[in-house]
Amino acid sequence: MSNPVLYLDDLRIGQKFISSEHVLDAAQIIEYARQFDPQVFHTDPEKARDTFFQGLAASGWHTASITMKLVVESLPMSAGVIGAGVEELSWPQPTRPDDVLHVESEILEIIPSRSKPGRAIVRIRCETKNQRGEVVQSFVPKLLAFKRP
Amino acid sequence: MSNPVLYLDDLRIGQKFISSEHVLDAAQIIEYARQFDPQVFHTDPEKARDTFFQGLAASGWHTASITMKLVVESLPMSAGVIGAGVEELSWPQPTRPDDVLHVESEILEIIPSRSKPGRAIVRIRCETKNQRGEVVQSFVPKLLAFKRP
C-alpha cells in the first residue's frame, strides 16, 4: 500500500477514490463458488448456459469479496477498513469471466459520533465497474474513521 | 441437497428455514482474508490484539460468503438462489475462530412481478448466529422465485 493512511481529518464529502484493477477469470469464479456458492451457474460453464444467467457468472459474494480487496487498497483508513454495516447492496448485472474490475468510491456523508469524540461513521458509495464502465455492483458501506491522534 | 426444490407456490410469509452448521477456524479466516481482505485483524492473530477487534476476527465478507453457502443449502430455490439485491447488511458483532455458525431465515414479503407472470421477489430476513445464539450477521436478500411449471 503506497497510499498515505487516511484519518477522519483527511476526509470530505464528495471526495473520490479510484482503485486499481482486478482481472477475473473462469478459474477464480469456479474456485470461489465451489467453496461458498456451489450453484451450476457459478461452477459449470456448460450447465450455466441453460440457467437464468445464460452462461458462467461470478457469485455476487465473490464480486463483493473482490470489491473489498480493491477498497482496502484504495481507501487506506488509519485503523483499517472497518464496516459498521452496508446499505443498498445490489448487482445490476452479472460479473463474467475475463471481466476487469475496478472500484470507484465517493464519500456521501460524514456522521460524527455523539458518544465517542474523535470518531465518525463515513457513508461511501462504492461502485464496482467492468472494462466497459458498466456497474456490476453498487453498495454504500458505513466505515469507521478516527481523528489523527 | 436432500431438501425438495422450492417453487414460488411453496413459499408463504412467516415461513422459516434453518441451515446446517459451519465450523470456522483461524486457518479459514486467514486464508479468506489473505485473498480478499488483507488487514492484520483478519490475517495475524498476534497483531490483531492491538486493533479495534482486539483479536483475530473474520472479514465480514467471509461471514457473508459462509452465510451464502448455508443459504444455498437450506433454501433450495427451483432456479437457484439468485439475489436481486440486499437490504440492511450488518455485522452486529465479530465472527471469531472456532465459532460454529448457522443461518435462520424467515420470509418477510412476497412481491409478484408485474411484468413477468409466474415470477416474484421474495424478501427474506437471514440471521447468521454463532454457537451462543448471538447474531453475527443480519441481512435481507431479495430472491427470485418462480412458479411451478
From TrEMBL, chains A, B:
Source taxon at top rank: Bacteria
Segments forming domain MaoC-like: 13-114
Name of the protein in question: MaoC family dehydratase
Native organism: Diaphorobacter ruginosibacter
